[in-house]
Design goal:
The complex is a heterodimer. Chain A is an alpha/beta fold. Chain A has a single domain, classed as 3-Layer(aba) Sandwich (Rossmann fold). In chain A, 36% of the residues lie in helices and 24% in strands. In chain A, helix 1 packs across helix 5, helix 2 crosses helix 8 and helix 5 packs across helix 6. By secondary structure, chain B is α+β, with helices and mostly antiparallel strands. Chain B contains five helices and seven strands. In chain B, helix 1 packs across helix 2. The longest helix of chain B has 17 residues. The two termini of chain B are 27 Å apart. The chains are: A alpha/beta, B alpha+beta. At the A-B interface, helix 1 and helix 5 of A face helix 1 and helix 5 of B. Chain A: InterPro entries: NUBPL-like, P-loop_NTPase, YlxH/NBP35. Chain A: One of its GO terms (molecular function) is 4 iron, 4 sulfur cluster binding. Chain A: Keywords: ATP-binding, Nucleotide-binding.
Chain lengths: 229, 148
């Protein structure tokens, strides 16, 4: 009997759960997870990337520790978004773990979190590993697969798409860095793509550490994407 | 405070396991890793508060601490909790009561190095919190159910 798994299942029961994932690293999962959470509003964003923990860095929460109450780990709150990350437990220590321990940590993080929103967004690490298996064990999630239009990214992400479809999921595809909007003219520097395209907006870089203040083109486009979910 | 979540987890798991059967749970034996330093008093208090009006109404909670066995995959040596006590104490002094391994014993390889070769490539046994035994009364008969 594994009590933490039961608690994790119960915490997510009846909620709308989205998992932002990609088989490829560096495609912008964490930025997209954060902007999705902020755009939807009233969400809990759980950072399952237990090694790089980019979410707290995006929101300027580095070095901050979670408070713990009778309800468990209290998320950080930014606007109407609640944020949980392992960095709020280990501060700025590195996290190096054998495989089996990783799934145990992910399960614990979900089980102990105080989740009081109806929507939960998970930011997953790259790859096809423990994180997907952990989520499959505890919840019926909607996968949002992030890729870029580069050929290698599309080829790598195809492994994940095949897996998800075999598991009966209908992944939503978000293509990051898909096009540039040049005064109303859409330019696709990397060619055509399949999926929902997000524009290239270099100004996002200025918002690393305060992503909650970003109101630019990518967020605008994500509003449209959310309507399609 | 984290103990309340642990009590919650135990109660939900046992209720799920009992699945509406007409049984009374008399005792639950919970195994926890010793280096999580869970406060048994708070845990039992939380358990007693949260068990009310459930199949666990009359249940007692027993906590058994399990000492982990460490093995370094890099140099192959085995070592005990006592041999890394200084390392654990130093993490506890940095973080205080809510130190990382209190929440998540599985974080140990991130904070503990092999005392022989300094590697973090450590495997632990008995790192998960488990319900090891449930004692139930069914039709007036008390029986113990061991859990895997």
């Amino acid at each position: 009997m594994e009590p933490l798994r039961q608690l994790a299942k119960d915490k997510l029961a009846g909620k709308k759960v989205y998992a932002v994932m990609s088989a490829k690293g560096g495609v912008g999962k964490s930025v997209i997870s954060s902007l999705l959470a902020l755009t939807m509003g009233g969400t809990t964003l759980i950072d399952l990337d237990i090694h790089t923990m980019a979410i707290p860095k995006l929101f300027g929460l580095e070095g901050k520790l979670h408070e713990v109450s009778k309800n468990g780990i209290e998320p950080f709150e930014i606007k109407t978004t609640k944020i949980v990350s392992l960095s709020g437990i280990v501060k700025d220590n590195y996290v190096i773990l054998p495989g089996g321990n990783q799934s145990s940590i992910m399960e614990s993080l979900i089980a102990y979190s105080h989740i009081d929103t109806n929507t939960v967004i998970f930011d997953l690490p790259p790859g096809l590993g423990d994180e997907i298996l952990v989520l499959e064990r505890i919840t019926d999630f909607t996968p949002i697969v992030v890729t870029t239009p580069s050929k290698i990214s599309k080829k790598v992400v195809d492994y994940l798409m095949r897996y998800l479809r075999e598991r009966g999921k209908e992944p939503k595809i978000l293509v990051n860095l898909a096009y540039m909007d040049c005064d109303g003219k859409v330019v696709k520097p990397f060619g055509e793509y399949e999926g929902f395209g997000l524009p290239i907006d270099p100004s996002i870089e200025e918002y690393i550490g305060r992503i909650q203040d970003y109101e630019g083109a990518v967020k605008e486009k994500l509003k449209e994407f959310i309507q399609s979910l | 405070m984290h103990e309340w979540s642990v009590a919650d987890a135990v109660i939900r798991t046992v209720i799920d396991w009992a699945d509406g059967k007409k049984i009374k749970v008399k005792k639950v034996v919970l195994g926890v890793p010793s280096f999580s330093f869970l406060d048994v008093e708070i845990l039992k208090e939380a358990f007693d508060m949260m068990k009310k009006d459930s199949v666990l109404d009359e249940a007692e909670l027993e906590v058994k601490f399990k000492d982990p066995k460490f093995k370094c995959k890099n140099c192959g040596k085995e070592f005990s909790l006592n041999e890394v006590k200084d390392q654990i104490d130093s993490v506890k002094s940095e973080f205080g009561e809510e130190y990382p391994m209190h929440f998540m014993p599985a974080l140990a390889p991130s904070f503990i190095k092999c005392p022989y070769c300094g590697s973090h490539d450590i495997i632990l046994e008995s790192q998960d919190m488990t319900i090891d035994e449930i004692q139930v009364e069914e039709n007036g008969t008390v029986k113990t159910v061991s859990q895997g």
